[in-house]
Amino acid sequence: MCTDTGCRVCGSTGVYEAFVEEVRKARLGRRVEVKATGCHGYCEKGALVVIHPEKILYVQVKPKDVAEIVSKTLKRCAVVKRLLYKDPESGERIVHEGDVPFYQKQMRVLFGNNTRIDPCDITDYIACDGYQALRGVLETMNPRKVIETVIRSGLRGRGGGGFPTGIKWRSARKAKGERTYVIGNADEGDPGAFMDRSICEGNPHSIIEGMLIGAYAVGAEEGIIYVRDEYPLAVETLTTAITQAYECGLLGRRILGSALTFDISIMRGGGAFVCGESTALMASLEGKMGEPRAKYIHTVEKGLWNQPTVLNNVETWANVPRIFLHGVDWYTSMGTGDVSHDPWGGSKGTKVFSLVGNINNTGLVEVPMGISLREIIYEIGGGIPGGKEFKAVQTGGPSGGCLPESQLDLPVDFDRLTEAGSMMGSGGMIVMDEDTCMVDVAHYFVDFLKDESCGKCLPCREGLRALSEILTRITEGNGRSGDIKLLQELSETIIGTSLCALGSTAPNPVLSTLRYFKKEYISHIRDKRCPAGVCKALIQYRIDAIACNGCHACFKVCPADCITGEAKEIHVIDQDTCIKCGSCYEVCRFDAVKR
Amino acid sequence: MDVKKTISRGMKMELEGVYPDRSSDEALERKVESILSLYGHDSSQVIAILQDVQAEFGYLPQTAFHFLAERLGIPLVRLYGIATFFKAFRLTPRGRHEIKLCTGTACHVRGAELVKDAITRELGIEVGQTTDDLAFSLEKVRCIGCCGIAPAMMVNKDVHGKVSAVTLNKVLSKYK
C-alpha cells in the first residue's frame, strides 16, 4: 500500500497499522506481507491498497475497511466491491489495477516498481533486478562504451533543459581536473510538481544505481544528492537507502569487487527556486548564496569547487539503470524522432508528469514521450470535473507556458512543446478550466519568479517587478491602452538580457497567455471585466432575487456582515461593505450568488 | 517580505524575552558549538549548520549569528546574506502553531488566495508574521505535493485539504 506524502494525508498510516494488526489477528503472517511502498501515482483516490499477485486495487481505503479486506480478500479470495474503483461514466467497478483507465495508457518504466517495493528495504529493490544493470556495466563495459550507450539511447535531461545526458558525460570525462563530482538534483522547486519527491520516496535505490553508473562512466569518486528541505520524508528515505547501500558494499571502496570507489552524501537545499540552475546549485553546495554565474566555461569542466561536475536531475539518474537493464533498442522504441545519429534528434523514453489543477484524476502519470496532451488530460486524467469547459494547460512550471484547446493534439516532447511557446520543464502539468483567469495566472507566475529572482541581473530583478506591476494594474482594473505592447517589449528585453535560465524564460507565462488568450487581457483593460470572475477588483458578488429562497446560509458565513435579509426572504449584499471573500458564493447551494 | 521590519520585530521579541524557549547565551553557544563540531567547523557546510541551528531553536537567534561568524571565520555579512537569501531561514521566532499555506499552482487555481485573506482576517497576521501571543505564524509555501486535495495547508505537521474561507475556522479552532 502507498504511504507516500499524498496518501498519508488521506490517512494511509492508520490503514497500514490496521493491516498489520488485522493480519496478525487473522494469523496470516506467514502468507501475507504488508508493505509500505512509495507513490502509486493516483493521489486523487488515496489511500491506495494493491493486493498482489492479483493486483486488486482498492481505492479510498479507511482504517475501518481493513478488517473486511482481510477477511474477504485475503482469506476467501473475494473482492470487496464497494472499495473497488468505479468508472465515472459507466459506473462499473474495476477489479484490477491495470484495467483502470488512469493506468491503462501509462507506461510505468520508472514508477512500475513503486507499487512493489518497500523503499526502506534494499533487498526489495535487488529482488526487482536492482543493481543488475550496475553489475553488467562493471563486468562488461568500459567507461567509453557506457557513455556511447547513453548517447545512443537519446536520454535527455529530465530537469527541464533537455540536454542529452550522454554528451554531458562525455564532456565531463574529457575535462581535466583533480577529481570529478556527480550530483543528483532533487531540489524540485516548481509549484505544482512533485515527481522527484515521489522517486526519492518511492525508489531511492534507482537514483543511487544511476549515479553509480554515471560515476563509473565519468570517473568520479564523490557524489552528492541535493534534496529540497521541504521534503523531510525524501531526506529520510534517501539516507536509509544510502546507509543500506554502504552495508551491502554497493557504495564505498571496491564496489562489487571492481576498482570503482564512490561515496554519496546528502545536502539539504535552502529553499531557493534559482538553485535548480546548475551554477547556483553548486554555489549553494559550496556554502554561498545561490547566485548563478555566466557559463563561459561549462560546469562539466569547472563546476563544484572548480572541478568537472556532472549534474543531472534524479529522474534522469533513475532512467539510467533501466537503459542498461533492458537495452538501448528497448529504450529507443519509446518516444519520438530518430536519435541514432544525433541525440538532439528526438525525445526518447518516458516522462513523469504531475497532473494537477482542475482535473478529475489528480496524480503522477508516467507516459511515453510523444503522447498527445489530449490523451493525458482526457483519457488518463479523466477530463475536467463538474462539466466545466477546458481552458488551458500549463506545462513547464513558472518558466513554461499556457496552451489552449487548439494545441491539445500536440505530441509531448522536448522540441514540440518549445515550438508551441511552452516547455517540458520538470514535468508539472496544471489543467485550468473556464473559471481560471489567464491574466491572473500570468500574474501568479511572474510574482513567483519576482520573489525567486536572485537579484544579480538588473533586467530580471527590475524587469519582473515592472511586469508584475503592470499585471497588477490590469487585474485591478487600471490597465492602460498601451499595456499589452509594453508587456511584450519588456518580456523580450528580459529574455534577451538575463544571464541564467530563470530570467531568460521568466516572461514565458506572459508571452504564451498573450499569444493564446489576448482577448482576456483586452476585456480586463478595455471593458474592465474579468470574464472568469477571478480578479477581485473587477467582480461583484450579488444575489439573484429569483434563485434566492432565503435559506440564510450566506448571512451566517459573511465575515463582513454585509448581507441583509431575514430567513425565507430574499437576501441582498451591500456592495460598499462587501470584502469579496467569496464565502457566500461557496455556501450557496441554489446558485443564487452570482459574480 | 519587509526584511527590516521583520528583523526589528525579532530583536524586540528577543530583548523582551517574549520567546518562551529563549535560552541563555551560554546555553545557546554550547548548543551551537555541538552542532558545529558535527560538521567539523567546516565553513562550506554553513547552510547545513544554519539549518540545524534553526531546527534547534525554531529560528536563527541574533546571538547565534555572531557566535557562528566568529567560530567559522566568515564575515557576519555573508552569513546574513545566506540567511536572507534562502527561504528556509527565519530570523524571527515562530508561533506555537505554524501555518504553512500552500500556494502551488494547483492550490492557486483552486482559490488559495481567498484562504490567505481569510487567515489574515481571522488572525490579523500577514504572510511571514507571528501573532502577538505567539500562538500562530503564517507562511506561504510552494507546493507541498498534495495537489489532489487543493487548496491545502499545513498546521504544524498536519495537512488539511480542501480548505476554504468558510471551513477555515473549523480547522483553526482545533489549535486554539
**N→C terminal distance of chain A:** 43 Å
Mean pLDDT of chain B: 81
Side-by-side strand order of the widest sheet of chain A: 12-11-15-13-14
| Total beta strand runs of chain A | 19
Largest interface: A-B, 57 and 43 residues
Overall geometry of chain A comes to globular
Q: Report helical residue fraction of chain B.
A: 40-55%
**DSSP summary: helix tally of chain B:** 8
Kindly name the structural category of chain B.
Answer: alpha+beta
How large, in whole angstroms, is the Cα Rg of chain A?
A: 26 Å
pLDDT < 50 runs, ≥5 residues of chain B: 15-22
Number of strands of chain B: 4
Q: Enter the CATH topology name of the largest domain in chain A.
A: Rossmann fold
Could you explain the architecture of this structure?
The complex is a heterodimer of chains A (595) and B (176). The mean pLDDT of chain A is 88. Chain A has 5 domains: 5-100, Glutaredoxin (3-Layer(aba) Sandwich), CATH 3.40.30.10; 122-345, Rossmann fold; 349-436, Roll (Ubiquitin-like (UB roll)), CATH 3.10.20.600; 439-525, de novo design (two linked rop proteins) (Up-down Bundle); 540-594, Alpha-Beta Plaits. Chain A is globular and about 85 Å long. Chain A has 595 residues and is of the alpha/beta class. In chain A, a hairpin with a 5-residue loop joins strand 11 and strand 12 (363-368). Chain B has helices at 3-16, 25-38, 46-57, 62-72, 76-85, 105-109, 112-123, 168-173, and strands spanning 97-102, 136-141, 153-155, 158-160. Chain B is α+β, with helices and mostly antiparallel strands and 176 residues long. In chain B, a hairpin with a 2-residue loop joins strand 3 (153-155) and strand 4 (158-160). Chain B has a 4-stranded mixed β-sheet with strand order 2-1-3-4, covered by helices on one side. At the A-B interface, helix 1, strand 11, strand 15, helix 17 and helix 24 of A face helix 3, helix 5, helix 6 and helix 7 of B.
